[in-house]
Design a protein that fits this description.
The protein has 9 helices and 14 strands. By secondary structure, it is of the alpha/beta class. The mean pLDDT is about 95.
Protein backbone atom coordinates (compact mmCIF):
# COMPACT_ATOMS: atom_id res chain seq x y z
CA UNK A 1 0.00 0.00 0.00
CA UNK A 2 1.23 3.47 -0.89
CA UNK A 3 -0.07 6.66 0.70
CA UNK A 4 1.02 10.28 1.09
CA UNK A 5 0.31 13.38 3.10
CA UNK A 6 1.38 17.02 2.94
CA UNK A 7 2.51 18.33 6.33
CA UNK A 8 2.20 21.90 5.10
CA UNK A 9 2.67 23.65 1.79
CA UNK A 10 3.29 27.30 1.00
CA UNK A 11 5.93 30.02 0.93
CA UNK A 12 6.48 29.67 4.69
CA UNK A 13 7.42 25.99 4.56
CA UNK A 14 6.93 22.71 2.73
CA UNK A 15 7.09 19.05 3.74
CA UNK A 16 5.36 15.88 2.59
CA UNK A 17 5.39 12.25 3.66
CA UNK A 18 5.28 9.20 1.41
CA UNK A 19 4.67 5.83 3.04
CA UNK A 20 4.86 2.33 1.54
CA UNK A 21 3.77 -0.81 3.36
CA UNK A 22 4.42 -4.33 2.14
CA UNK A 23 4.75 -7.66 3.91
CA UNK A 24 4.31 -6.06 7.31
CA UNK A 25 7.12 -3.56 6.74
CA UNK A 26 6.55 0.18 6.39
CA UNK A 27 9.00 2.66 4.84
CA UNK A 28 8.64 6.43 5.06
CA UNK A 29 10.27 9.20 3.05
CA UNK A 30 10.02 12.84 4.10
CA UNK A 31 10.14 15.07 1.04
CA UNK A 32 11.52 18.44 2.13
CA UNK A 33 11.42 19.68 5.71
CA UNK A 34 11.06 23.42 5.32
CA UNK A 35 10.16 24.14 8.95
CA UNK A 36 12.00 24.57 12.21
CA UNK A 37 12.71 21.33 14.02
CA UNK A 38 10.13 21.93 16.75
CA UNK A 39 7.41 22.76 14.22
CA UNK A 40 8.29 19.74 12.12
CA UNK A 41 7.99 17.50 15.20
CA UNK A 42 4.54 18.98 15.86
CA UNK A 43 3.42 18.39 12.29
CA UNK A 44 4.68 14.83 12.35
CA UNK A 45 2.78 14.25 15.60
CA UNK A 46 -0.43 15.43 13.94
CA UNK A 47 0.20 12.78 11.30
CA UNK A 48 0.56 10.17 14.04
CA UNK A 49 4.34 9.88 13.68
CA UNK A 50 7.64 10.94 15.22
CA UNK A 51 10.96 11.79 13.59
CA UNK A 52 12.22 8.35 14.58
CA UNK A 53 9.64 6.87 12.17
CA UNK A 54 11.29 8.53 9.16
CA UNK A 55 13.64 6.34 7.12
CA UNK A 56 15.06 9.05 4.86
CA UNK A 57 14.67 12.67 3.81
CA UNK A 58 14.76 14.03 0.27
CA UNK A 59 15.52 17.75 -0.21
CA UNK A 60 14.35 19.00 -3.59
CA UNK A 61 16.44 22.19 -3.61
CA UNK A 62 18.19 24.70 -1.39
CA UNK A 63 15.50 27.33 -0.81
CA UNK A 64 14.76 27.81 2.87
CA UNK A 65 11.11 26.82 2.68
CA UNK A 66 12.24 23.37 1.51
CA UNK A 67 15.60 22.60 3.12
CA UNK A 68 14.54 23.99 6.52
CA UNK A 69 15.76 21.79 9.37
CA UNK A 70 17.10 18.92 7.24
CA UNK A 71 20.59 19.18 8.67
CA UNK A 72 19.40 19.36 12.28
CA UNK A 73 16.93 16.51 11.80
CA UNK A 74 19.52 14.27 10.17
CA UNK A 75 22.14 14.80 12.84
CA UNK A 76 19.68 14.50 15.72
CA UNK A 77 18.01 11.30 14.50
CA UNK A 78 20.74 9.83 12.28
CA UNK A 79 18.50 9.95 9.22
CA UNK A 80 19.97 9.72 5.69
CA UNK A 81 19.35 12.83 3.59
CA UNK A 82 19.19 12.67 -0.20
CA UNK A 83 19.79 15.76 -2.34
CA UNK A 84 21.63 16.69 -5.51
CA UNK A 85 25.26 17.69 -5.32
CA UNK A 86 24.26 21.16 -6.48
CA UNK A 87 21.76 21.48 -3.63
CA UNK A 88 24.36 20.30 -1.12
CA UNK A 89 26.90 22.84 -2.37
CA UNK A 90 24.29 25.62 -2.43
CA UNK A 91 23.45 24.94 1.22
CA UNK A 92 27.09 25.31 2.25
CA UNK A 93 28.37 21.75 1.78
CA UNK A 94 27.54 21.00 5.41
CA UNK A 95 28.76 17.93 7.23
CA UNK A 96 25.96 15.38 7.59
CA UNK A 97 28.18 13.02 9.63
CA UNK A 98 27.95 10.23 7.08
CA UNK A 99 24.22 10.61 6.41
CA UNK A 100 24.44 12.54 3.11
CA UNK A 101 23.35 10.71 -0.04
CA UNK A 102 23.75 12.35 -3.47
CA UNK A 103 20.84 12.03 -5.89
CA UNK A 104 21.02 12.48 -9.65
CA UNK A 105 18.60 12.94 -12.48
CA UNK A 106 17.08 9.65 -13.65
CA UNK A 107 18.99 7.51 -11.11
CA UNK A 108 16.64 5.47 -8.92
CA UNK A 109 17.34 4.78 -5.28
CA UNK A 110 15.50 2.73 -2.68
CA UNK A 111 14.13 3.66 0.73
CA UNK A 112 12.99 0.32 2.07
CA UNK A 113 9.81 -0.59 0.22
CA UNK A 114 9.91 2.63 -1.81
CA UNK A 115 11.62 3.12 -5.14
CA UNK A 116 12.39 6.79 -5.74
CA UNK A 117 13.13 8.33 -9.14
CA UNK A 118 14.47 11.92 -9.11
CA UNK A 119 14.27 14.10 -12.20
CA UNK A 120 15.44 17.60 -13.05
CA UNK A 121 13.09 20.56 -13.28
CA UNK A 122 13.50 24.16 -14.47
CA UNK A 123 13.70 26.30 -11.32
CA UNK A 124 15.97 29.07 -10.08
CA UNK A 125 18.05 26.78 -7.90
CA UNK A 126 21.45 25.15 -8.44
CA UNK A 127 20.36 21.58 -9.23
CA UNK A 128 16.69 21.11 -8.34
CA UNK A 129 15.07 17.69 -8.45
CA UNK A 130 11.50 16.50 -8.12
CA UNK A 131 10.30 12.93 -7.61
CA UNK A 132 8.35 9.91 -8.70
CA UNK A 133 7.79 7.36 -5.92
CA UNK A 134 6.43 3.83 -6.27
CA UNK A 135 5.94 0.67 -4.24
CA UNK A 136 5.98 -1.36 -7.44
CA UNK A 137 2.21 -1.22 -7.82
CA UNK A 138 1.14 2.42 -7.47
CA UNK A 139 3.00 5.62 -8.35
CA UNK A 140 3.01 9.10 -6.79
CA UNK A 141 4.36 12.13 -8.64
CA UNK A 142 5.65 15.13 -6.71
CA UNK A 143 6.02 18.32 -8.74
CA UNK A 144 6.47 21.65 -6.97
CA UNK A 145 8.79 24.60 -7.54
CA UNK A 146 9.28 24.83 -11.27
CA UNK A 147 8.63 27.51 -13.84
CA UNK A 148 7.29 25.28 -16.62
CA UNK A 149 6.88 21.64 -17.51
CA UNK A 150 9.45 20.29 -19.94
CA UNK A 151 8.91 17.13 -21.98
CA UNK A 152 11.35 15.48 -19.55
CA UNK A 153 9.09 16.36 -16.61
CA UNK A 154 5.90 15.18 -18.28
CA UNK A 155 7.51 11.92 -19.39
CA UNK A 156 8.66 11.13 -15.84
CA UNK A 157 5.16 11.62 -14.44
CA UNK A 158 3.18 9.88 -17.16
CA UNK A 159 0.93 7.21 -15.69
CA UNK A 160 1.17 8.44 -12.08
CA UNK A 161 -1.80 7.41 -9.94
CA UNK A 162 -1.62 10.49 -7.69
CA UNK A 163 0.04 13.89 -7.98
CA UNK A 164 1.17 16.53 -5.51
CA UNK A 165 1.26 19.43 -7.95
CA UNK A 166 2.21 23.08 -7.56
CA UNK A 167 -0.53 25.64 -8.22
CA UNK A 168 1.46 28.65 -7.09
CA UNK A 169 -0.17 31.81 -8.37
CA UNK A 170 -2.97 33.38 -10.33
CA UNK A 171 -1.29 35.40 -13.09
CA UNK A 172 -3.65 38.35 -12.74
CA UNK A 173 -3.30 38.51 -8.96
CA UNK A 174 0.49 38.35 -9.31
CA UNK A 175 0.53 41.13 -11.94
CA UNK A 176 -1.58 43.39 -9.71
CA UNK A 177 0.21 42.51 -6.47
CA UNK A 178 2.50 44.71 -4.39
CA UNK A 179 5.49 42.58 -5.38
CA UNK A 180 8.32 44.62 -6.96
CA UNK A 181 8.76 44.11 -10.71
CA UNK A 182 11.85 41.90 -10.35
CA UNK A 183 9.98 39.53 -8.04
CA UNK A 184 6.97 39.36 -10.33
CA UNK A 185 9.30 38.43 -13.18
CA UNK A 186 11.04 35.79 -11.06
CA UNK A 187 7.86 34.13 -9.80
CA UNK A 188 6.12 34.22 -13.17
CA UNK A 189 9.17 33.35 -15.27
CA UNK A 190 10.25 30.09 -16.86
CA UNK A 191 12.43 29.28 -13.83
CA UNK A 192 10.03 30.48 -11.17
CA UNK A 193 6.75 28.91 -10.12
CA UNK A 194 3.77 27.42 -11.92
CA UNK A 195 0.76 29.61 -12.54
CA UNK A 196 -2.65 28.08 -11.95
CA UNK A 197 -3.26 27.77 -15.68
CA UNK A 198 0.12 26.13 -16.31
CA UNK A 199 -0.54 23.66 -13.50
CA UNK A 200 -4.02 22.89 -14.81
CA UNK A 201 -2.51 22.22 -18.23
CA UNK A 202 -0.06 19.76 -16.64
CA UNK A 203 -2.88 18.02 -14.79
CA UNK A 204 -4.84 17.75 -18.03
CA UNK A 205 -1.80 16.36 -19.87
CA UNK A 206 -1.27 13.71 -17.16
CA UNK A 207 -4.92 12.74 -16.81
CA UNK A 208 -5.69 9.06 -17.35
CA UNK A 209 -8.27 6.60 -16.08
CA UNK A 210 -6.03 5.48 -13.21
CA UNK A 211 -5.33 8.96 -11.82
CA UNK A 212 -6.86 8.90 -8.35
CA UNK A 213 -5.81 12.14 -6.64
CA UNK A 214 -4.38 15.49 -7.62
CA UNK A 215 -3.50 17.66 -4.62
CA UNK A 216 -2.76 21.31 -5.36
CA UNK A 217 0.29 22.48 -3.41
CA UNK A 218 2.47 25.53 -2.80
CA UNK A 219 -0.38 28.02 -3.19
CA UNK A 220 0.79 31.61 -2.70
CA UNK A 221 -1.02 33.26 0.19
CA UNK A 222 -0.65 36.65 -1.49
CA UNK A 223 -1.24 35.80 -5.14
CA UNK A 224 -3.69 32.93 -5.17
CA UNK A 225 -7.04 31.76 -3.85
CA UNK A 226 -8.08 28.14 -3.20
CA UNK A 227 -11.42 28.69 -4.91
CA UNK A 228 -9.67 29.77 -8.13
CA UNK A 229 -7.47 26.67 -7.98
CA UNK A 230 -10.38 24.31 -7.38
CA UNK A 231 -12.30 25.75 -10.31
CA UNK A 232 -9.40 25.27 -12.72
CA UNK A 233 -8.70 21.79 -11.37
CA UNK A 234 -12.32 20.79 -11.90
CA UNK A 235 -12.18 22.06 -15.47
CA UNK A 236 -8.94 20.20 -16.18
CA UNK A 237 -9.81 16.91 -14.48
CA UNK A 238 -13.58 16.81 -14.72
CA UNK A 239 -15.58 16.67 -11.53
CA UNK A 240 -17.01 18.87 -8.83
CA UNK A 241 -15.05 21.86 -7.54
CA UNK A 242 -15.90 20.85 -3.98
CA UNK A 243 -14.09 17.54 -4.48
CA UNK A 244 -10.80 19.15 -5.60
CA UNK A 245 -8.01 18.88 -3.00
CA UNK A 246 -5.65 21.66 -1.92
CA UNK A 247 -2.84 21.50 0.63
CA UNK A 248 -2.53 24.56 2.84
CA UNK A 249 0.31 26.08 4.83
CA UNK A 250 -1.13 25.33 8.26
CA UNK A 251 -2.50 21.79 7.93
CA UNK A 252 -1.22 20.40 4.65
CA UNK A 253 -3.53 17.58 3.64
CA UNK A 254 -4.95 14.37 5.15
CA UNK A 255 -3.44 10.98 4.41
CA UNK A 256 -4.44 9.86 0.92
CA UNK A 257 -4.06 6.40 -0.59
CA UNK A 258 -2.27 6.52 -3.92
Amino acid sequence: MLRFRSLGSGSTGNAALVEATSGGRTSRLLIDCGFGIRQLDQRLARAGLAASDIDAVFVTHEHGDHVGCAHTLSRRNRIPVWMSEGTWLATGARDFEGQLRLARDDEDFAVGELSVHPFTVPHDAREPLQLRCTDGHRTLGVLTDLGHATTHVLARLAGAHSLLLEFNHDSELLANSAYPPFLKMRVGGNYGHLSNQAAADIARALLHDGLRHVVAAHLSEQNNRPEIVRRLMAQALGGDEAEMLTANAAEGSPWLDV
